[in-house]
Every structure is written in C-alpha cells, then in structure tokens.
Design brief:
- The complex is a heterodimer of chains A (500) and B (513).
- Chain A is of the alpha+beta class and 500 residues long.
- Chain A folds into three domains: 302 residues, no CATH class; 111 residues, no CATH class; 59 residues, Arc Repressor Mutant, subunit A.
- In chain A, 38% of the residues lie in helices and 20% in strands.
- In chain A, α2 packs antiparallel against α3, α9 runs antiparallel to α10 and α12 packs across α15.
- Chain A is elongated.
- Chain B has 513 residues and is of the alpha/beta class.
- An eleven-stranded mixed β-sheet of chain B has the order 1-3-2-4-6-5-10-11-9-7-8, sandwiched between helices.
- In chain B, α7 packs antiparallel against α16 and α10 packs across α12.
- The longest helix of chain B has 25 residues.
- The relative contact order of chain B is 0.14.
- Classes of the chains: A alpha+beta (500), B alpha/beta (513).
- Chains A and B meet through β15 of A and α10, α11 and α13 of B.
Chain lengths: 500, 513
C-alpha cells in the first residue's frame, strides 16, 4: 500500500529453471549425479574441448514435452536450438546451447488455487497456507525451452583463486516462462507449488529450491490500481526458498512504490536478493545488458516432433495430484483433506493405495497414514520419497488390529518397525510376544489371580466404588504383559466381579 | 621402389609381406627429412609410440587383423583434426601446446583400418585462409615452384602428398580448403557430402559447412581413404545415419556398391558409367576474368568426356555470384562463436592477468593472428542486435536458395563440371595484402559447401608458369561414388599427370606410377 492516496497493483511474471533428472547430460553421456568429486563427471564435450560436438539426449525433449502437455502447452513440431554467446568461466565453450527462436513448448496455462478475496498486498511469508475460501485462477505460460546448465565456480578468497567444477556443465534444464499474470506472493507460491507437483509426479525433477534444482527469477512491476499501463519491471535473482521469494516480492513492491511516490522512476534492471539482510541490490542495468548474439546452433539439427511421438508421451502421462485426490475420495471414501495430503507425494499416494487395497480397509489405512506414518516421517526428518516398506506388511498389521490380534498400543510399535525396516508384522508380533491373548481360559486365569491378589480392592468395588474397576483392568493387562485385548478384559472382568 | 607406388600398391606389398611397415614409414620420414626443410608442410611428426604402433600394425597385418586396402599406409593429417597425445595446433599460437586427450572419429577409423598417423600438416590458422599463409608458425611452399603458395587452407596436406612426403592425407574443406590446394598442387581432393564424414574431433571453423575429406595422388587412392573414414558417427549430431543413397538422377547407388571389386573391374565400370551421363557446365563458373588456360582446359575436359559418350552442355546457376558473400557471412558468424572457447582459461595460450576479462583479452589478442581476428570481428558484428536480420538471416535464406538451385540442376544433370579456382597458385605474400581479393578467389568452391554437396578436384593441366590446376566435378548429395567414377574415368582419359621432381615418370597408367 502506498503512503499517499494512490493504490497500486503488483504485476509478476516468473522465469523458472528446472534441472531435469535424466541419467545423463543433455549433450553427452556423462552422469548427472549430484555430489561427485569435482570434474569427475566430464568429457571433451561438457568441458568444451576443441573439436568436440554436442549430441542431443532425446530424454530431455521427452521430459520437456511431458511438462508441456501437463501445462496445456502447444508442442512445436520443429524445435530448434540456438547459441547464446557470452564469456564466463563456468561456461566452457563461452556459449550456452539454449532455445530462442523455436522453443519446444509454447502458450500453456496452469490453474492455481488461491484465497478468495485476498488483498492484493498479501506478502506474508506463510506460503499461501491461509485458510478461507479458495478460488481458482489461470496463469498463462508463455513458453518452455530446453538448455544446458553451466559449471560451478568456487572462489577461494584466502588463496585468491577461483576454481571451476564442470560436473554440472551440460546438466539439462528447462526454463518455464510465465506471462505476467500473478499479483502477489500467494499466487506465486501457489504457481510454483503446482509446477513442482507436476514435475514430481512426472518424475522429471526433484525441484528443490535450496539445492538449485528449481531456480526462480521474479519479474515484478507496480502500476496504479486499475491502470492498463504496465510499470517498468525489475528481475530478482538469488531466491533460494519460498520464504525468500515472498519476502523479496513484498520488499521489491515497497521499493518500487516508494520510488514512484517520491517522483522517481523505476530502473529496468536485474537485482540480487540478499536474504540475510532482507534487501536486494542492483546487479546490472538494462544499459549493461549483454548482446548475446543468438544464432541457430549448427551442431544440433532441428528436432522434429511428430504426432506419434506426442501421443506416446501423452499416453505415458501419470494421474496427477488433483485427479488422484478426487479419485481417492470417490473410490476409498476418505475425507478430502486426507486425500489432498496423501497425494502430495506420488510415492506416498501409491503406498497408501496399495495398502488400502491389500487390507480392504481404506479408511483405517488413511488413519494410520495420516496419523502414525506422517508423525514418524516428521520425527525422522524424512521425505515421503524415502519410504520403502512393503504395502502388504502395513496392510497385514492393519488387518491384525481390526481382528483384535494385537492391541492399538502394540500395533503402533509394530507399525514403526514396518516403516523403518519393512518388518513382516505377523512374525514380528509373534517373535516379540505381542499377539493378543485371545484364549479366554488363559485370560480368565489371569483375572482370577488378580481378584485373589486384591481382595481389598474387590471389596471396594462391590461397595459401589466403580472407579477401581480401571485399576483392576490395569492389573490384568500387566499380568498379561499388555497382550490382552482391553475390550475382552473389560467384559470378562465385569462378569467375574458380578459372579463373585 | 616405394616412390613409384601408390598407397594401394604399397598396402598390397605390405600385406603380402614383401615390404615392412617400418620400411614404408621410414621411406616417408626420409622424404620429409629431405624435402620439408624447404617446403614446410609438416608442423609435427608422430614420434611418441610410433615404433610401438609400427610393430602393432605389422603384427596385426601378419595375423590378419588388418586386411583393408590401405592397411599399413601412413597418412598425413591436417593440424585441425584431433590426435590423441599428438599436438593439434590448428597452426595457431593459441593452441601451440595443445595436446588432445582424444582422437577424432576419422583418426579412430584410420587406426581401425590399419593406417598410421605420419604427422600433422600446416594450414591457415583455424582453416581461415586460401594460401596457408595465415599459419602462425611457418609458410608452406608450393612444391612445383617454392615462390608460390600451395593454396589453403589444407596446404600442408596437399604439399605432403604432391611432394611425395606422404602417400595420402586428410584435409578439411569449409569453402574449398581441400579442393583448391589440391588444384594448386596437382593432387586429387574430395569434399564429401555434408554429414557423410564425422566432424567429431575436427576443431570447428564453420560447423554447418566443415567437412573432412581425403587427398591423394590418384582418384582410386582417395576413394579408398574416403571409404575408410565415411559413415555414420553417433558422436556427431549432423552425421547422416543409415545407408546413404546417391540422390543423383540416373543411378541410385549405394555407398558400398564397389566393395569387393578388383581395381580393374572398378576402372572398367567407371568408363561404362560415363556413357550417356549428363554433365552440366555452369556458365557462371567460366566468368570473363578467369585464367584463359583454365577455361580452355574445362572445354578440353568436356570434349574428352563427350568422346566417351557423355552428354555435356552449358547451363546456368545464376545465384553463383552470391556465393562468396553468403559464405563469408555465415562462416564468420559461426567462427566468431566457435572460437570463443579459446580464452586462455582451460587450454592453449594464456597471458596471465589479475582480472579475468583482462586475461581473456590479452590471451586472445596475442593468441590469434590477424586473419582470424578479422573473421571473429566480422562474425560478431554480423550476429549483433540490429544486424542479425539484415546479414545473418538474409545469408541463411540465400544459402537455402543456392541449395535449391543445385537441387534443380541435379534433376537434369548427373554432375557438374567447373574450374576449382579462377587461376593457378598466386605468389607468396601477395594474397593477404588484399583479403577481399583473396575471398573472391573462393568463387568456384564456396557454393558447393553452402549446398552441402560433394565435389572432387582432379588435376587437369599446367599453366605457362608450370603450375598445375585441376577441374572440379560437383555431384548431388551422397553421390561420392559417382564422382569418383567420373573422376577416375577422366583421369584415365587425361593420361598420367606429371609429378613433382624425382617422382615425375611421364608414362604408365594412372595408379601405377
């Protein structure tokens, strides 16, 4: 909100880079695996040796097509690579192979869900998790293109040297350029979450902002409310978390409004966000912007995409989160809230669905997953993707509980074992003596013993002191080492007391 | 005597065991020792591992591992083709000490066919030039008269073959760099169809035009070397996969049609091939300012072919005049980008400076020669914002039109007959004073590269100064074998071409000097 009487609208467009999870690089056969020793995953091609030539990895095209189809893009039937020329040591050829003139996908859209009636000034750092009524909004996608990543520079200030690691050089990226259709941080986060979810479901990227497998540049301008004339925009870089994105949007909006309120102009420039300081500073102005001397890449022939190829990709598209969530509610009768949470991870959703099917107890399965499983994950600080238990094991346990073979408390312990080490629940229960005492004779013996050992308490109960009943139940449980089913104990104990 | 043998005979003798690989290599190294002090064709000779390679080859031939037509033959390699462990400088100070960590695909194929790298030959720096004089290191002399240039940019390779210092050589051709020096030195040189020979390991000048090709004394030798290096390579995205078929109008030939035929059968087939063949002479290639001797030679060639039943007629390729301009726009644009990797950072020359961009600037200023800088500047300008459409895009359009013009011509003709250059070799140090004039000398060769077609330069005659010149046959895409046939037939009709100095025999048949 401006200081004066004027109201301002924020106009935001995003450029999102996503690192693709292909096995090999975009133009050579080197591994893309993260974390290897510097320059061990390199070859003449990705280190720009004289005479080396790039050969396109078809998987990259397929991943881009898959995301393009998921975002309703038009797939260009003839897509071309172009060279972007600039000198920098992380870029071994001093040009980047990218796409400018005929990108692989164009004119798409993404539907997001945002809080209805939220002010245009929502820049809180809560990542759009506001409750309240939701409305849908369409964000248009201008284009999506394929390109190669650069190497990684490390500056050793003490030694006064810079080192370059080309392991990342040639790792495939797709850049998704949105139209300036977003108005606030909530919409931006919702768009990014949606994009991330699509990529995770497609399995084309892990989209981690902190690790750089998802990188977001925010183009932002402000204009007088209701005006059709767009303001001058800035581009914000170095945004490494959703929180940083939210803060940077709020701060940049205020900075631009302050300039305008003071009669100054917003400069078209690229700015760098300093998250620790909570401010941004100018990296380069438009005047300093480089002429990249783009031209068609002569070493990579045009990629021709025919209808069959598109249809083959389309037929392999997964069921995405929203559809899956709706289906879970319909098919398994679980609450929409649970379905939404369980489908946030494709892997978790698959585990749930298999467990629900095998156990025949979808609602109980949902309860176990929503309660115990998520709690265990949180405690272990793990991602759902790291889960590796056999759904049948979880299902066997859930069935055992329902059949009264194990009580709830012991079942939790077994469930934890299933989750952590994929324990086979029935043999585990047997080995650890956790099976419920269902033999009424044995149970009756235990009850008789307890009653004999506690004559005073029994007298109290018979005198009308109902609350000592619980103590007696506890004693029976103790005697059976927790294996007895509390319900059965209740019934038998009451019967025994009454017949005394 | 080795000096009277062509590469095919040499290989036969080695395979029969009447000649050792070491003896053959020794002979050529001796020739280099004796002649190259003056001619300066070689930049680097293979030394490290040479004896091991000779022994390995000799054993491989004895055991039947290497049975190909050129097994045991040493080959000279243009210095822009990467050879593992052997300096590859592109005749530039920038790569003065650059030793590749890998072999170009063509080198791997030579090795697989039992050949051996003799050494690396001088050239114009990064293949930019038409005289080999833009080399940073030495000036190669024309063996027919050392006051004249050998042509370029594959001048060293042409001289090595012409002077008998190597039986065969590889060159590269972006705008005529194999064919023109072949013409100036009196040897045969082939530019293959774009995509037919892998460019992997060829230090790029203009990627969309560069091709590696064979150079030799005779067509048969070039054919054999071509067959050893041609074919799909998965490391080059522009390499053509699958079985290629001549797109020529008369005969759909496969690349392997000649496999297994004896030399006599091949020659016989060549003569038969030209009967009824339609050969066009584009009149634009016989422009007024060209050397009269060259023009007459083209006509004589036409007559010889007609006598054997070919139908030769004049035709027109009106876009020929735009070839040079289009070529220099596209080639320089690509070169400006291709050469940007030479920055002093990773390999090659580095001038130490505290600040990064100062290091780049100084390294490139000192590392590149004048002609290379001229083309980088030109290319950077052509690709600049505001000029791209007017220059680069327009040149791309003209390139497409030129290609179409050739495609049209090949609906009527099986091949085209033209000069290789407007004249014979110029005198040393006369060309670089007027680069534009030098560029115009490429008029007969550049359009073929723009169209991506194959063409062969075959020795044809001598001018009054005693300098040789060739004729060029241009074919439709993938019609290399047809070109070899025509060229081999022509070679037979022409008679034995004189050789330089002691190798001149003056009689006998082609291929048996």
């Amino acid at each position: 909100m401006g200081k004066g009487n004027k109201q301002y609208d924020t106009v935001i467009g995003l450029e999102v880079h996503i690192e693709l999870a292909t096995e090999t690089k975009i133009f050579c056969g080197c591994s893309t695996k993260f974390g290897a020793l510097p320059n061990t995953q390199t070859c003449p091609v990705c280190t720009g040796m004289p005479g080396s030539l790039p050969v396109l990895n078809q998987k990259v095209v397929e991943y881009a097509m898959a995301l393009g189809l998921a975002t309703n893009c038009r797939i260009n039937r003839r897509t071309l690579f172009d060279r972007k020329n600039y000198f920098y040591p992380d870029n071994p050829q001093n040009y980047q192979i990218s796409q400018l003139y005929a990108p692989v996908c164009q004119d798409g859209k993404l539907e997001i869900e945002v809080t209805a009636g939220a002010g245009k000034d929502v820049e809180s750092g809560d990542g759009g998790k506001n409750t309240g009524t939701k409305k849908r909004k369409t964000i248009r996608i201008h284009e999506m293109h394929m390109e190669e990543d650069a190497g990684k520079l490390t500056h050793d200030e003490a030694a006064g040297i810079s080192l370059v690691d080309y392991n990342r050089s040639g790792v495939p990226l797709i850049e998704i350029v949105s139209e300036p259709d977003m108005e606030n941080a909530e919409e931006v986060i919702a768009y990014l979450e949606k994009l991330r979810m699509l990529c995770l479901y497609l399995g084309i990227s892990d989209c981690k902002l902190q690790e750089g497998s998802m990188r977001v540049d925010v183009n932002l301008s402000v204009k007088e409310a209701g005006s059709d004339v767009l303001g001058t925009r800035t581009e914000m870089k170095n945004l490494n978390s959703f929180k940083a994105i939210s803060r940077a949007i709020g701060t940049e909006r205020e900075r631009q409004i302050a300039l305008l309120e003071n009669g100054k102009a917003v400069e078209q420039e690229t700015r760098r966000w300093d998250d620790a300081a909570g401010v941004s500073y100018s990296m380069r102005s438009k005047e300093d912007s480089k002429d990249y001397r783009y031209f068609p890449e002569p070493d990579v022939p045009p990629v021709l995409i025919d209808r069959e190829w598109i249809e083959a990709i389309r037929s392999r598209q997964p069921e995405f989160q929203e559809e899956k969530s709706i289906r879970f509610v319909r098919e398994y009768g679980i609450p929409a809230y649970d379905a939404d949470i369980l489908t946030q991870s494709k892997h978790l959703a698959a585990l749930f669905e298999e467990t629900a099917k095998v156990s025949g107890q979808p609602k109980k399965t949902a309860n176990w997953f929503m309660g115990e499983l998520l709690r265990l994950l949180k405690e272990a600080g793990k991602e759902p993707e790291e889960l590796s238990f056999t759904p049948k094991h979880a299902a066997d346990l859930i069935v055992a509980v329902e059949e009264g073979k194990i009580n709830q408390a012991n079942a939790k312990e077994v469930f934890a074992r299933v989750v952590s080490e994929d324990a086979e629940p029935l043999s585990y229960m047997e080995q650890h003596g956790l099976l419920s005492l269902t033999d009424e004779g044995a149970l009756q013996t235990a009850i008789d013993e307890v009653l004999a050992e506690n004559p005073a308490i029994v007298e109290e109960f018979r005198g009308g002191k109902e609350k000592v009943f619980g103590f007696l139940v506890g004693q029976v449980m103790k005697k059976t080492k927790g294996k007895a089913d509390p319900g059965t104990v209740n019934g038998l104990l009451r019967k025994s007391l009454e017949s005394l | 005597m080795i000096e009277q043998m062509d590469a095919l005979t040499l290989s036969e003798k080695i395979k029969k065991g009447t000649l050792g690989v070491a003896e053959a290599v020794g002979y050529y190294r001796d020739q280099i020792e004796r002649k190259d002090g003056e001619l300066k064709a070689f930049l680097t000779l293979a030394e490290g591992g040479l004896q091991e390679r000779i022994a390995e080859l000799q054993e491989g031939i004895r055991s039947g591992q290497y049975t190909g037509p050129l097994a045991g033959v040493p080959v000279a390699i243009k210095d822009n083709i990467c050879t593992k462990g052997l300096r590859t400088s592109c005749a530039s100070k920038m790569l003065e000490n650059f030793i590749p960590s890998y072999d170009a695909t063509v080198i791997q194929r030579l090795r697989d066919a039992g050949m051996l790298v003799l050494g690396k030959t001088n050239m114009d720096e990064f293949a930019m030039g038409s005289t080999s004089e833009t080399s940073s290191f030495q000036i190669t002399k024309n063996p027919w008269n050392p006051e004249y240039v050998p042509g370029g940019s594959s001048g060293g390779s042409a001289v090595a073959v012409a002077a008998g210092m190597a039986p065969l050589a590889l060159g590269s051709d972006t705008g005529g760099s194999i064919r023109q020096p072949a013409s100036f030195c009196g040897v045969v040189g082939l530019l293959p169809t774009y995509g037919r020979v892998s460019r992997y390991g060829l230090v790029a000048y203009a990627s969309s035009l560069d091709q590696i090709g064979p150079m030799g004394r005779t067509v048969a030798e070039c054919r054999a070397l071509y067959e050893a290096i041609a074919g799909y390579d998965e490391k080059d995205g522009t390499s053509v996969p699958g079985t290629v078929r001549c797109l020529g109008k008369m005969r759909k030939m496969t690349a392997t049609e000649y496999d297994g035929l004896s030399r006599e059968e091949k020659q016989k087939r060549c003569m038969e091939r030209i009967k009824g063949m339609r050969i066009g002479i584009p009149k634009e290639y016989l422009q007024a300012e060209m050397n009269g001797e060259v023009r007459d030679a083209i006509k004589n060639t036409a007559t010889l072919l007609e006598q054997q039943g070919a139908i030769v007629e004049e035709m027109s390729l009106p876009l020929t005049e735009y070839g040079v301009a289009t070529y220099y726009l596209l080639a320089c644009a690509e070169a400006s980008s291709n050469l940007s990797r030479f920055d002093g950072g990773k390999y090659g020359k580095r001038v130490e400076e505290k600040e990064l961009h100062a290091m780049y600037k100084k390294s490139r200023t000192e590392g590149f020669g004048e002609e290379t800088k001229r083309r980088i500047l030109l290319g950077s300008f052509i690709l600049s914002e505001g000029y791209y459409d007017a220059y680069y895009l327009k040149a791309l359009k003209v390139k497409r039109l030129i290609k179409e013009e050739y495609e049209n011509a090949f609906r009527t003709y099986d091949c085209l007959l033209t000069p290789v250059a407007p004249g014979t070799a110029p005198k040393l140090s006369t060309s670089l004073q007027n680069p534009l004039q030098m560029y115009l000398g490429d008029v007969d060769t550049v359009a073929v590269n723009l169209a991506g077609l194959p063409a062969i330069s075959v020795p044809c005659g001598m001018d009054q100064k005693g300098l040789p010149f060739g004729v060029q046959f241009i074919g439709n895409a993938f019609c290399e074998q047809l070109l070899f046939d025509v060229a081999e037939a022509y070679e037979e009709l022409r008679g034995v071409f004189p050789t330089v100095g002691e190798r001149m025999t003056g009689n006998g048949k082609a291929g048996e000097r």
